[in-house]
Amino acid sequence: KKPDALRYGFNQSANVSTSIKILQYFSLSPAVGYTGYLYFNRLNFFNNTSLGKIDTTRQKGLFYTHNYNLNLNLSTNIFGTFVFAKGKIAAIRHKITPSIGYTFTPDFTKQGNSFVRLNNYSPGASGETAYNRYSNNVFGGPSSSTLQSSIGFGVINELGMKVRVKKDTSFTTKKVNIFDALSVNSAYNLAADSYNLSNFFIRGQTAVYQKININFSGTFDPYSYVNGHRTKNYAANHDGVFGRLMDGNVQISTSLNPQAQKGEAAKRKEDPRIPFYYPGTYTDFNAPWNLAVGYTLNFNKIYNTRDHRFVDILNTHTVNLNGGLQITKTWKISFQSNYDLKRNNLTTTSFDFYKDLHCWEMRFNWVPLGAFKSYYFTINIKSQTLKDLKYDRRRSFNTY
Predict the structure, then answer these.
(1) Cα dihedral angle (378, 383, 389, 391), rounded to 10 degrees?
(2) What is the chain's Cα-based Rg?
(3) Which of 94, 211, 321, 363 is the most exposed place for a label (fewest CB within 10 A)?
């Protein structure tokens, strides 16, 4: 009924990458990406001077446009080992992986005919705006309207040690990880007029006594602030600090059953048939029971104009429990629940029931609490060839 509303077209993409050894110790990884678009219509934009606005029309025909980018990355590994002749610690090993890269994407508003530059008609606006002539098509078009030429750099640290453990009448060594990963990343935009240096992103991962897993991350702004306004001065020069912490995330988790925790014994399987109505994850227990406890904290800073200072805003502050019980060889039950410490209430709570029926299997997922109450029940054949032979019943949160 409305053929002009139909969006159709073709796209093709090609990516070429390789890895080259330089001077034996350095690894150079160049990569080039190209995407082409073939459409049968595009948009035209015109200045409507009488009404002070931009008019849009659709032009039919055969049109081709493209998008490409270039990436280079250089990295190496540096190892350092400190050996101690006496004491509990036998050795400390530090692995450093520095890297530097370059990313280039041209300004497509100045290339070809993918964009149209017109005067701004918005109140108080000046200059020109670039309008994408393929933005209404099914695959879009060149997304970069500004030149991107930046140098990215970062470093990853891994720190571990060997401790002496007495065994009978002799000593042996045991490996203990201090930091599985501690990384810092940022970039410098050569094409920007100001604020060339990007925020520093710091991420860390460690395990306390190999039982309590800790993951943390944070973003530091390298520029200083005056009365809540970002200045062009570096915080290191103006304030004498590395940067201002703008947001952070901390996740702590542990399992109360060591047998279930070893080597991530309980691996989760995804079910692609029900991506929205049901989480699609089931726990395959090698241990008869498992109970994991977790804590999540996520925050960001905003400037309080009344107190003239930055304050922390808690976005996520929860404790979560998840676990399972294998009642028999064919019956398994798992659950997941979260308690919001900020609002003092239960949030997401779900139960999974699994029954092995020999050649068949039965699953039932139930979310009894919260805004997303739902359930999903299915019986299906285990064989991948006949996996679509099944019976299911579901009710989502909007029809519960």
Answers:
(1) -10
(2) 28
(3) 211
122 pLDDT more than 90:
no
Distance CA 398, CA 224 (A): 47
DSSP structure string for 201-214: EEEEEEEETTTEEE
List the one residue out of 111, 109, 130, 134 whose CA is nearest residue 119: 130
- Please tell me the predicted confidence (pLDDT) of residue 249: 96
Token pair of 28 as six digits: 């150079």
Strand partners, 142: none
Neighbours of 333 (CB within 10 A): 18
Please return the burial class of 98, using the count of CB atoms within 10 Å of its CB with bins 0-12, 13-18 and 19+: middle
Q: Which residues of 268-300 are buried (b: 16+ CB within 10 A; e: fewer)?
A: eeebeeeeebbbbebbebebeebebebebbbbe
User: Which are the contacts of 388, defined by CB distance < 8 A and separation ≥ 6?
Assistant: none
Cα separation, 120 vs 84, whole angstroms: 69
366 contacts: CB under 8 Å, gap ≥ 6: 350, 351, 353, 374, 375
Q: What does residue 4 show for φ and ψ, rounded to 5 degrees?
A: -70, -20
pLDDT digits (tens, 9 = 90+) for 68-107: 999 999 999 999 999 998 888 999 999 999 999 999 999 8
Q: What is the percent of the chain with per-residue pLDDT over 90, rounded to a whole number?
A: 45
Q: Which amino acid, one-letter code, is at 38?
A: L
Token digits of residue 131: 């309008």
For tokens 């501690």, name the residue.
182
**Separation between Cα atoms, residue 155 and residue 161, nearest integer Å:** 20
